Amino acid sequence: QVLFGPSVVFVLGGPGAGKGTQCTKIAETFGYTHLSAGDLLREERSREGSEYGELINRYIKDGKLVPVEITIKLLKQAMMKHGWEGGRYLVDGFPRSFDNLRGWEEVIGNTVRVKFVLFFDLSEETMQARLMERGKTSGRADDNLESIKKRFVTFQQESMPVVEKFHLKGLVRRINAEQSAEQVWRDVQRNFGPSVI
Ligand code: UP5
Ligand code: MG
């Protein structure tokens, strides 16, 4: 059993579900460190001397999942940097496949306590509209219709089965992410605070 290692909340949901937006608020309000797997991969892509830059770029544009060895290395590095013992982390956008989960279990496994999984649930129509709107200014290589469609396929085929698996373990807390950001935040907050530590 983990006595004083880090604790983690996984934050899952489709592309454009609002994971990043809500994680920022949770981090500010409840003292978590927010680690977005996608942000870590994008940082690594632009890091000078990175051997993975090209590869990461290709996978992200295609809406495919970067080999888990890379993602897990970045996540673990970030957790060590911010403090391992007693750290409280929001892991945003990971694990998004059974292979991701295997990587997590092999490298991190029971050295970390997974408290629960926050799952943002909403329609593809809404996600698409949000991402197309963001794409006007985001500069993200995957905020275009072609990449968005590919991200949806990956989410349905690879990520939803992971959510289902966590659900069967009783770990999932579902949020109606179709609502306004304020309403979503109101629902998200109920899952944090003294009663759920
Ligand atoms: N917005 C947010 N909430 C709103 C609301 N309630 N109402 C109206 N608008 C709302 O939000 C998206 C947009 O919607 C923003 O403009 C926001 O203002 C607005 P955001 O909070 O950014 O949503 P988020 O769920 O974080 O969307 P994101 O695009 O980051 O989701 P993805 O899961 O697609 O992206 P991520 O960065 O996690 O991954 C990108 C790619 O990296 C993946 O496709 C994959 O290729 C790769 N990747 C891996 O390979 N492995 C990993 O482990 C992780 C990523
Ligand atoms: Mg995000």
Descriptive report:
CMP binds at residue 100. ATP binds at residues 16-21, 134, 179. Monomer. This is UMP-CMP kinase. The protein has a single domain (7-190), classed as 3-Layer(aba) Sandwich (Rossmann fold). It is α/β, with parallel strands linked by helices. The mean pLDDT is 96. α2 packs across α4 (68-82) and α6 crosses α7. The protein is globular, with a radius of gyration of 16 Å. It is 51% helix and 15% strand. It has a 5-stranded parallel β-sheet, sandwiched between helices. 32% of the residues are buried. Residues 19-20, 36, 38, 93 line the site of magnesium ion.
Short note summarizing the structure:
This protein is of the alpha/beta class and 197 residues long. It is built from 8 helices and 5 strands; from the N terminus they run E-H-E-H-H-H-E-H-E-H-H-E-H. It has a 5-stranded parallel β-sheet with strand order 2-3-1-4-5, with helices on both faces.
Distance between the termini: 16 Å
Alpha carbon gyration radius: 16 Å
Provide the CATH top-level class.
Alpha Beta
Let me know the average pLDDT. 96
Tell me, briefly, the overall form: globular
> What is the CATH topology?
Rossmann fold
Tally of DSSP β-strands = 5
Q: What hetero molecules are in the model? A: P1-(adenosine-5'-P5-(uridine-5')pentaphosphate, magnesium ion
Number of helices: 8
The helix/strand order is EHEHHHEHEHHEH
Low-confidence segments, given as residue ranges, are none
Which structural class best describes the helix and strand composition?
alpha/beta
Look at the structure and name the CATH superfamily.
Answer: P-loop containing nucleotide triphosphate hydrolases
Q: How many structural domains can be distinguished in the coordinates?
A: 1
Q: Quick one: biggest sheet? A: 5 strands, parallel
Strand content: 15-25%
Tell me which CATH architecture applies here: 3-Layer(aba) Sandwich
The largest sheet has its strands arranged as 2-3-1-4-5
Helix content: 40-55%
